[in-house]
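We modelled the chain as a single entity of 114 amino acids. Its sequence is:
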Amino acid sequence: MIEKAKYELDLILNNCKDEEAKKMQEDINNHILEMVKIFANYGHSGFSAEYTINTLTKLLRQENLTPLTLKDDEFVEVSNGIFQNVRNSKIFKDKNKFDSKPYNVDTMEILEGK
């Protein structure tokens, strides 16, 4: 796994157009290789590898792993009467919009709690 990662990352490095880009890519490659080494040391295979990769990907993207409850304790007031979800930064409640129901700021879709 580590050798494959090195090979693939070197391909990217070799395509860098200038020294600044190459230096930045070298740093990123080193960081990624450290993460690959840690993952490889745990000996994951099959199901556990896929599960771990999927979970880690969501966490690195700052996505929630379980459904939002949309209850008040999941929100923090960020401005007067405007509340943001602590688990998903795209979810808001506003006392002056949508009857204070939670909504996605990107899509303006009103959300229903569970």
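As a brief sanity check on the tokenised model: Residues 2-60 form one domain. Strands lie at 75-79, 82-85, 91-94, 103-104.
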